[in-house]
Write a structure and sequence with these properties.
By secondary structure, the protein is an alpha/beta fold. 29% of the residues lie in helices and 20% in strands. The strands form two sheets. The chain has a six-stranded mixed beta sheet, with helices on one face. Strand 10 and strand 11 form a beta hairpin.
Length: 243
């Protein structure tokens, strides 16, 4: 784990958060990240621990089915709580599978849906209205039930980001799953005056994690020749685990 001197915010004493960026079907890397987290916990126990996954479990990588199966049954990591958030790729997948609408299916296939279908053993020539029957119902239920945000102390975890100058309770689901600008270029604090939040997000691939006073980006392009990143937050420090 590479540790920075200071994090942008401070968690309450005794609490540690592990947040994993966009997996995109890289099941082998996710297993390695979980093993590294377990090793870190064995070396440095903490009273209160949370493991978060920031969405985009499916598409582009080789084993979306394996990623969803692993997370749906619960990762073998000795943490107090596991939180799984939805990404825009899960939203695209669910819309395509549920409706078989030509626009929805074309959008998903254009963004890696065929890789996901292949991983579940759905034939490449299967018509869209048959996709739902070819996918495990427990996987679809798990995907539908994913949350879109989570708060730990002064940190807000979402897949993509939030819209500046909109109250946190009024943020739209679409923005939390899809936004880039103006979120990425916003330099002012997020959240109400005097109670800023630091947004931890994925969605936008970067070569290395981005740490700014108002946000931390941890999609490091696992399917683009990059790495899978886990952010570790504890008190006023942060660190990273890579696979």
């Amino acid at each position: 784990m590479v540790t920075h001197a200071l994090a942008p915010a401070r968690l309450p004493e005794g609490r540690r958060v592990y947040a994993v960026g966009d997996v995109h079907g890289c099941a082998d890397r996710l297993v390695r990240i979980h093993a590294a987290i377990a090793a870190d916990l064995a070396a440095r126990p903490a009273p209160q621990t949370v493991l978060l996954h920031l969405g985009d479990y499916v598409d582009r990588g080789p084993d979306s089915a394996g990623v969803v199966a692993l997370l749906a049954r619960g990762p073998d990591v000795p943490v107090g709580r596991v939180v799984n958030l939805m990404g825009n790729h899960e939203q695209m997948m669910l819309a395509a599978v549920a409706t078989a609408d030509p626009d929805a299916t074309a959008l998903w296939l254009h963004n890696g849906g065929q890789d996901s279908l292949r991983s579940w053993g759905v034939p490449a020539d299967a018509p869209p209205d048959s996709w739902a029957a070819g996918l495990p119902s427990e996987h679809l239920t798990w995907l539908r039930d994913l949350a879109v945000k989570h708060v730990e102390g002064p940190y807000l975890f979402v897949h993509a980001g939030i819209r500046p100058e909109v109250p946190l309770e009024r943020q739209s689901r679409h923005d939390m799953l899809w936004i880039r600008d103006p979120f990425l270029t916003w330099d002012e604090p997020f959240g109400p005056p005097g109670q800023p939040v630091v947004v931890v997000h994925g969605h936008t691939p970067v070569p290395d994690p981005v740490v700014r006073p108002n946000r931390i980006g941890i999609d490091t392009g696992a399917t683009y020749g990059g790495r899978l990143t886990c952010l570790v937050l504890e008190e006023d420090c942060l660190g990273f685990i890579f696979a």
